[in-house]
Structure formats: structure tokens, C-alpha cells
Fold:
Amino acid sequence: MNQKPIETWTEAERIAVVKRIFNTVTDHYDLLNRLMSARRDVWWRRFTVRRIPKEARLVLDVATGTGDLAIEIAASREAQVVGADFVPKMMAAAKEKTSKHDLCERISYVAADANQLPFPSGLFDAAAIAFGLRNIPTPETALTEMARVVKPGGKVMVLEMTFPRNMKLRWFFQWYLNNVIPFVGRMISGDAGAYRYLPDSIQHFLHPDELTSLYQQIGLRSVKAFPLTFGLTYLHEGVVP
Structure:
């Protein structure tokens, strides 16, 4: 694990750390997500899926991880889903879960870098990323790529954790991130470094207002930001012109 402050990491260092961490924690990833969010992550994803236009028939899930969002989309509507990720072990877990849910005909997985998506422009009706944008050193590049592969009128969606605006909640969340999450992560996964990175990645990610501005800068329209669970998580969405 890189011991330097996260804000001083180079792009290459950040990518290497992310690949190592997510290949390491795959076996315990879903369990820890449920425990550390008190299962709110399930509700957050379901809210995101409800915001996908009903007429969307082909949806891209960027940084799909173990496939939770892709599975939620395919299980709740008549749509084909493509999950993209650059961590092989996570995608292997996603494929196994997809098979257990009997959704292999509705979901396919592609090895891909979020900054260089291997799809033609305007292919998808919507593109989403859940809890993955903060792991990408250049979020503006990833968002631009997501917008490129979505057809005009389609949505680009980002579900991501952040700090609540309420100062008391902010203080508690910061304490929780820096103390409880590393402890629980170490006890269950045995990888303390991975669950020190998680709090750091949240604390150094864009403020919701900054992400709204980034949406506007890359040309997305009708930009909306939905605070979820007292603002611990936000869903941002914008329409491709």
C-alpha cells in the first residue's frame, strides 16, 4: 500500500493501488459493503435504477465491480446491460453472481478502462457508475467518455459517497470512516490498507457542487443532484445533448 498522502499520488500510482486493492478484497467486498453501509448501498443503487429512463434498452455500468448495479438494472426492467471493469477478479465474481441470478442473457461483461471505453459513440441509452468515480484519477476524462458512448437524450449517472453538509453528521462520518471502517475491514478481509484507502478516497473526492460543475463543463444538460441518506451519498445525473 502506498504510504504517501493520497493527494500526492501520481496517476500511475493511483491506478496500481486501485487494481491491487480490488483484486485483494473481492471475496469480502459485498459483505463489507452491506455491513459498513447498514445495507443502505442496496437502497442507493435501487434509487439510481429508478432514475434510469424506462425506455432505456441498453445500459452501461462503468466500474461494475462485482456487478451489483448491473444485476439490479437487469432484474428490474427489460434492458440489456454491459458491465465494464479493469479488475479481472471483480468481473469474475460479477459473472458468477449474474449466473446465480439467471441473468446471463441480459448482462455481458467487458474488460475496459473507464478512460478509454471500447464502444462506439452514441451506443447506449444510459451510462452509470456506482462508487467507482472516486477511484479514477481523472474523473473528467471518465465522465467525458461516458457521455461520448451515450446517445443524445440519454443519461450519464454517478452514484458516489461524500461528506454531508451538516457539520455534526460530517464530524461523525469522518470519525466512522477513519476508525470503524478500517477496523471492520481488517477484521473481515485481513487487509487494513485497503480500508484505509476507502476513507481517503471519499475525503479527497469532489464535493457534490464540484461534480455538478464538472457535469456542466463537459456539456451535459438538465443536471440534477440528489442527496441520499442525509447527504452521505449523492446521485448526479445529466442528459447528453
Observations:
- The chain has one domain: 10-165+206-239.
